[in-house]
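User: Hey, quick favor. My workstation is busy. Could you predict this chain's structure for me?
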Amino acid sequence: MIHHSTFKEPSIKNRYITNAMIDGCFAALPSNIVSEIGLSVHHVPIRSFVLGRGDKRILMWSQMHGNESTTTKAVWDMANFLRSGDSLAETILGNCTIMVVPMLNPDGAKAYTRVNANEVDLNRDAKQLTQPESIALRKLFDGFKPHYCFNLHGQRTLFSAGQVEKPATVSFLSPSSNAEREITPTRIKAMKLIAAMNAMLQKLIPGQVGRYDDGFNENCVGDSFQMQGIPTVLFEAGHFPNDYERERTREYIFLSLIEGLKTVAEGSLDNFSTGDYFNIPANGKLFYDILVKNAHHINTHLNEGDSIGIRFKEILENNTIRLKPEIIDIGNLTGFFGHDVFECTDSKDIERLKSNRELLDLVLQAEE
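Assistant: No problem, here it is.
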């Protein structure tokens, strides 16, 4: 097993990752493998790097959504591994050429928003290509002519890996290429690649891998590239318990990237089946960040048995991300789970709740 800590890029961590923060990562690379593929709305360079000399071409891009930074950290860890001289790294580099765009949306990254500076979701601009970032990626795709695409994203803490009390720490998708969601040869290749990565992850985080919804949208980049006949894999970096900085999830994305590259390099896709892919449970939406059970014991305005479901809103303050709790649901929340649970019939949980003034005030102010 590859030890992630050996290759973890120390200069970037936590949730807030901007273009300036990865300058040092780019500076550590040979200049001849770094390129500028375009400019953002605010004229910030969008940079790429390429590794390997093999015939199998893989294109990957991260932080298309500026507030989804976990995969950006992971691609730099991957770059460190691939440049380490490790025997597997050399196998991958000998068989693959890997083009990486670590940050497609630098303006959105700086503002910590999903959208770009024109308030456009780049993952809904694949058809119209109205934005400079979308155009830059499409030109790179057309020029590089990849055999595989890795579309790297992050997902919220609400997702479960199926209808069970397991967070979707990593989720994957082989996007649809038409409204009928046909299982095309292109989708099959992506499904088998996902199955390979899932087999590895199940040894590390059993039951914590989900399958993302495959509803078709021709404006989404993954669906668009799949329509072009290029097997495309959506990666979603999700929640690992008590890991709101997404450093543990970073590790599992890193290991998934290496496993995916290994599978392509070794030509071992056919060791896996579409059945292996569909055995991955579909994402549920069953988690709150905080679940306050029997909250009427604290707030007498609530009905007996009422629970309060709270999720965190991510707010950029002083170059860090603050998690602000917000009430989402009140009522009978049977069947839902919390990453943290306060049972208001338990004296220890009541004391724990009272020790968190912001959370206690929120519970006391809750109304049906």
